[in-house]
Amino acid sequence: MSAPAYESALLRTARWRPWEFVIWAVAFALPLAMPSHSLLVNEIAIVALFAMSLDLILGYTGIVSLGHAAFFGFGAYAAALFAKLVMPDPTVGLVFATVLSALLGLVASVTILRGSDLTRLMVTLGTALLLLELANKLDWLTGGADGLQGVVMGPVLGLFEFDLYGRTAAWYSLAVMLVLFLVMRRIVHSPFGATLKAIRDNRLRAMAIGIPVVSRLAVVYTVAAGIAGAAGALLAQTTGFASLDVLAFDRSADVLLMLVIGGVGWLYGGVTGAIVFKLLQNWLSSVTPQYWMFWIGLILVLLVLVGRDRLLKPWTWFGMGKKKGGAA
Amino acid sequence: MLTILFDGIAYGMLLFVLAVGLAVTLGLMNFINLAHGAFAMAGGYLTVFAMQKFGVPFLACLPLAFIVVALAGAVLERTLYRPMYGKPHLDQVLFSIGLAFMAVAAVDYFVGSSQQNLHLPEWLRGRTEIGDGATLLGMGHYRLFIIGVCAVLTVVLQLILSKTRFGSRLRAAVDDPRVAAGLGINVNIVFMLTFAVGSGLAGLGGALGAEILGLDPTFPLKYMIYFLIVVSVGGTSSITGPLAAALLLGIADVAGKYFIPKMGAFTVYLLMILILMWRPQGLFTRKGGR
């Protein structure tokens, strides 16, 4: 391929499609159209952002992480404590939490550079557990097992008060999500993003053609941690509460599940997965409040047995028969 | 002092029996099985019910737990696990965690979420003390029993893996399934037996550990992390690696909780991260192979 040809190919994949504008317009119209569901919209926007940040390292870079909630929870506590101890302005708190989580990600990125998938699973899980223990034991700061209560947020940008129905919260979360989505979209479609995919597909080959693998991994882990922290901060700010549950293993597992339902290596996969997962969770927990974990487990098992890349393409479920080779 | 060391060793030995099955499936078959704790839980519940409902003596429950769980493992291996071997690790993680979730919810549904108690026979309840003052060594009889059982198991397993024909077949099947099959080894059978024994060991561990670790439906998730730590820190090439890791972990956990109770499980996680950063493949790794 000559240089202009691949340049235009890269640009073509990066171009905005018409349906993308529609989707975002619909998302922002939702709190107006269905005011009673604003809280759900807010929640979905937050977990979708969280899932996208995981996609950045899992789908685009191929790092299996069981402890992404570490950054989510860290951001949540950072934002809540900032609001409580320093100042109640949401935007400043958000930036503060994001930067702090990114710094934590930079430090933690040292742990994912070496070893096999199992080692990475363990150190990411270990990092999240370490933070969970810390948040539990430092109860004079974090409230321990009771959670951090009494977080009062000021109005967004000094103009919009958070209301009881969560409309401001929904728009606030959607706006932050859109901004960070644009950032991530820019990253994954840039040459930098292309090198990440090269590392995912074959690390040795990526190294051989001169991609600085270690620094790329560190950078992408830092960015993903920062964005996950932002998602956590949004949760703490819009609910006015942070508890140990934001750091729990369940949260890491849930976000992994969302991403896998929606499809990895595709930013909208995180969004789709978050919507499906949250609606499913709402529905299942109203049908069987106590045992929805069973159904989630069943979905996971079926998902893998069917082949997760085919779940989004129902027309391939039947007829095609057995095709050799699983997901990448 | 010595008592802490003793309790730590007993705890470590118990972890070893629980985790060694995982070391076998994960290390030898390269399958990340997060549902391993569910097999252990099955063994624990089996023992509790056999003793409460049918009055089976405790000693008879242990082999029972092993055999029943091993059979269940064999069935599951044949039906569900086998298609997963060639899949990427992410798929294996999702699949097995899904199984663990299902087990947790199912046990909750059928048995209830309350903690189950195991009633030990009289002769296992006592406690012997040797020495006094700083060198006091208090040995609970049940812990002594656990150490004994585990020591025997370790030796037997090591002998099976290194000295028997089955052991060499297994190692061959792991190193290169295609060549092994070409040499006339039935790789499928070998893997199924291995998986069954691994699950059975988990069941036995669950039966032994129900009294010390506690038994409730969240067991698989609560202890999953400990099993994984033992295997990943110990390395997966031999029996000695996980054994050393389990002892280290057990002693560190008991001592940590005794001397710095404020830190809780913090010590263990920190230790694991540091060890894995220092030696990403675990403390003891086999050269060659893959």
Précis, in short:
The complex is a heterodimer of chains A (328) and B (290). With 328 residues, chain A is mainly α.
Draw up the topology in text:
The complex is a heterodimer of chains A (328) and B (290).
Chain A: H1 3-14, H2 18-33, H3 38-58, H4 69-85, H5 90-108, H6 117-137, H7 139-142, H8 167-189, H9 191-201, H10 203-208, H11 213-239, H12 249-262, H13 267-287, H14 292-306
Helix pairs in contact in A: 2-8, 3-8, 3-11, 3-12, 3-13, 4-5, 4-6, 4-11, 5-11, 8-11, 9-11, 12-13
Chain B: H1 2-29, H2 36-54, H3 58-81, H4 89-111, E1 127-130, E2 137-140, H5 141-163, H6 165-175, H7 177-182, H8 187-213, H9 219-234, H10 240-259, H11 266-278
Antiparallel strand pairs in B: 1-2
The ordered H/E elements of chain B are HHHHEEHHHHHHH
Question: Which word captures the global form of chain B?
Answer: globular
Largest interface: A-B, 46 and 45 residues
The number of strands of chain A is: 0
**Helix/sheet category of chain B:** mainly alpha
Rg value of chain B: 19 Å
The residue fraction in helices of chain B comes out at over 70%
As a percent range, the share of strand residues of chain B is under 5%
Helical fraction of chain A equals 55-70%
Strand content of chain A: under 5%
Distance between the termini of chain A: 25 Å
Spans of at least 5 consecutive residues with low confidence of chain A: 320-328
Quaternary: heterodimer
Question: What is the mean pLDDT of chain A?
Answer: 84
Shape by Cα distribution of chain A? globular
Task: Give the N-terminus to C-terminus distance of chain B in angstroms.
Answer: 42 Å
How many strands in all of chain B?
2
Q: Unreliable runs of chain B, pLDDT <50, ≥5 residues?
A: none
Q: Give the strand order of the largest sheet of chain B, numbering strands 1, 2, ... along the chain.
A: 1-2
